[in-house]
Amino acid sequence: MAINLSKGQRISLEKASPGLKQIFIGLGWDINVTDTGSDFDIDASLFLIDSNEKIISDQHFIFYNNPISPDPEQSIQQRGDNRTGAGEGDDEIIDVNLKTVPTDIDKVIVAVTIHEAAERQQNFGQVSNAFVRIVNAENEQEVIRYDLTEDFSIETALIMAELYRKDGEWRMNAVGAGYEGGLQALVDRYQK
């Protein structure tokens, strides 16, 4: 049975599911009935962060145009870009091998942004049922889930969660923080 987190809660992945090695991060959402004249294209991205809270290099920004981490094991891989969010379940998925993530990566920031939000007059207030979940890839059992419940009426970028190392093990923090300025606001925050 999955552990449901609330905003700000943290949990050890090892305590949630002992021996967890290969996971996938599932992200999902529904679009409210609105007419902005354009479809919503919500994109998942990851910032692979060092001990200084900065992105290690441009290749450590994982998104639809750079879907694989630069390490030789390719320990983090985005499966693809869902451009509509249609259907049930996960809209975007990222695979992570917790055992091969390089040690210079202290934190994995899991974010979603609305593509061309300003031009399309869209924001996360027009989105509902957003969630992030950690799934054991070996048996497809959901381990941890965080459902966002806030109304982000002006925000165009969200940090959903963080995976981070502490005392030699991976943990998850349910962040749920919204930002104006879309993807660029997050890039500015984490760039060296």
Automatic annotation (TrEMBL):
Pfam families in the cross-refs: TerD (PF02342)
Region (Disordered), start-end ranges: 68-91
Comp. bias regions, Polar residues: 68-79
InterPro entries in UniProt: Stress/Tellurium_Resist, TerD
CDD domains (alphabetical): TerD_like (cd06974)
Domain of life: Bacteria
Domain TerD: 1-190
Family, per entry: Belongs to the CAPAB/TerDEXZ family.
Protein name: TerD family protein
Organism lineage string: Bacteria, Bacillati, Cyanobacteriota, Cyanophyceae, Pleurocapsales
